[in-house]
Each structure stands twice: as C-alpha cells, then as structure tokens.
Specification:
This protein is α/β, with parallel strands linked by helices. 38% of the residues lie in helices and 10% in strands. The strands form two sheets. It has an eight-stranded parallel sheet, with helices on one face. InterPro entries: F-box-like_dom_sf (IPR036047), F-box_dom (IPR001810), FBXL15_LRR (IPR057207), Leu-rich_rpt_Cys-con_subtyp (IPR006553), LRR_dom_sf (IPR032675).
C-alpha cells in the first residue's frame, strides 16, 4: 500500500504543520513564554494561528526576563519600549478578554490604553520602571478593569496621587499595592543606567500619595512604599485608613523615626510584618551638623549598622 509518510531511521516522519489546532495548543502550552515568542510562532501559518489562541494568553509575565544586570541600560531606550509595547498590544488583542495577569516593565501609555479597552478581567498589573506610563492610561485602567486586585507601579514617576485615588475608588478588590521609589539616598547605583532627568523626577508628594491610599484603599492587605518621601503625618493616615494591612514595607523612608512607626501602627491588629528604615548613611551624604546631635542621627535613620 502506498503512503505519503516518508520513512526515517527512527520511523515515519511527522509533518508538524498538519497537527490539529487542539494538538498544537497543547504543545504550545507546555513551552516557556520565551520559547513561544522566539521560535514556535514562526514555524508556519498553522502554528502562528495556534499561538494566537486566547487560551495561551491569560497570563503575560516577562518579569523573570529582567533579572540580567547586563541589559539594564538598553531597557531604558525608546526602541526597547516600543518592542515591549508591541508585544503587550498583541497579547491584549489576542486574549479575547481572557488576560488576567500582566507583569512587564518599560511599557508606555500606548500599550496600557489598549489593555484597558481589551482586558476587562485583568486582576494583576505589574508595570515597574515605566517612564512613559502616566495618569492618562492608569485612569483608563481604573475605569475599565474593576477586578484589579494587585497593582505594582514602582519607579513609575509620571503617575500621581490622583491615579491612586481613582484606582482605589474604581477597583474595590485591590489587596496589594506596590509604589516603591528608587533609592534617592544613594542614587549612585542607578547612574549610567537610568536617565538623569528621570532620577531627578522622583515624586516629592509622599504625604499626598499616603492620603490617597488611606482614603480610597481601605481593604489593602499588602503595601510597599520603599523610599517614599512621606512624614509621620502620612504614615498616620495610612495606618488609620488601611486597618486590614498585614504587611507594610517602609524600607528607605528616611523621614520616619522608630517612634513615628510605633505610634502609627500601635492599633493595627492585623499587621503581621513591618519593614522599617534600616540603611547606612555615608558621611559624604549626611553630616552631623544637619541634625545637631548623634542620637538624633541614630533614631532618625533607624539603623543598627550605622557607621561613621
């Protein structure tokens, strides 16, 4: 009997392009995100059609690919941002409302605006280090993605306290907020990587952001505000307005003392862990005459590793 199958030493050769759509989706679902984007989608037309199936795009997580320190400077370039935007826009288009989790960096308003329109079931949005994400796209997310329960806008300096208010009011399920800033006490670790003008744009309105969180996010359970420029007043407002907090990260919040933290958090019954400011302040950055007394130095910066 004649057959179209061609024999190889190991048996009949399989024509991968002839696999059923369901079989291809099964295969693609077992690949890593990197393997899907770099190889499988380019095999042939049938593989590309399977690659675009909504079931493969409920989660878009690139976070683990930003761990390489050798690529840091390139990530802040316009070309890299355009590539991330292109990928995110494609996923938003293909997901057909199934996209629930996004973890990327260096995207912009261009892609996030489309996410807001196409992804009403979004629950997790992590967009760290995005210099061109502004209140415009975050306000769209607030109105269009009411199921949001986790938001990470760390190092996104064009997002203001006004967006925090909208997110809090329009996304009642929000349980996790990460609004960390870069280390402004020792910016040397960012020099040569992050553009200087962006470093200088570090938000100064810590108490305004604290008030926005306190007044609009009463159900928060985890809050990270590392290196935030808030005072004891701002911390008090958070502790009074967010009684459900179980975890609070205040690392690098140099304007807070141990007394401020103890007083503000004394009535927070659900608080299980609080990370306090604990860092080394070099002589070249802060001088004793600025505060006038060594003890104040020690209390203000909350450190047991203080050295001169």
């Amino acid at each position: 009997m004649e057959t179209d199958e061609k024999e190889t030493e190991s048996g009949p050769r399989v024509d991968w392009a002839e696999l059923t759509h369901e079989c291809l989706i099964n295969i693609l679902s077992r690949l890593s995100l990197e393997d899907r984007w770099r190889a499988s989608m380019l095999v042939c037309n049938s593989w590309f059609r399977a690659f675009k199936d909504p079931s493969l795009h409920s989660v878009f997580d690139l976070d683990t690919y930003f761990d390489s320190p050798t690529e840091l400077a390139r990530w802040w370039s316009p070309d890299f941002e355009r590539n991330i935007d292109s990928m995110l826009r494609s996923v938003a288009d293909w997901s057909a409302d199934s996209l629930t989790e996004i973890r990327v960096r260096h995207c912009s308003d261009r892609s996030l605006s489309l996410v807001a329109e196409r992804c009403p079931n979004l629950e997790v949005l992590s967009i760290r280090s995005c210099p061109h994400v502004t209140d415009d796209s975050i306000s769209r997310i607030a109105f269009k993605c009411p199921k949001l329960r986790e938001l990470d806008i760390s190092y996104c300096y064009e997002i203001s306290h006004e967006s925090l208010v909208l997110i809090g009011r329009k996304c009642p399920n929000l349980k996790v907020l990460k609004r960390n800033l870069m280390n402004w006490l020792d910016p040397s670790q960012h020099v040569g990587v992050v553009p200087n003008e962006y470093l200088n744009a570090c938000p100064q309105d810590g108490d305004s952001e604290a008030a926005a969180i306190a007044n609009s996010m009463p159900l928060l359970e985890r809050l990270e505000i590392r290196f935030a420029k808030l005072s004891a007043k701002g911390l008090n407002s958070i502790c009074q307005g967010c009684k459900n907090l179980e975890f609070l990260d205040l690392s690098g919040c140099a304007n807070l003392t141990s007394r401020d933290i103890a007083n503000a958090s004394s009535n927070m019954e659900r608080l299980k862990e609080i990370k306090k400011p604990n860092f080394y302040i070099p002589r070249s950055v802060f001088h004793t005459e600025r505060y006038g007394h060594w003890r104040l130095y020690d209390e203000r910066f909350q450190t047991d590793v203080f050295r001169i």
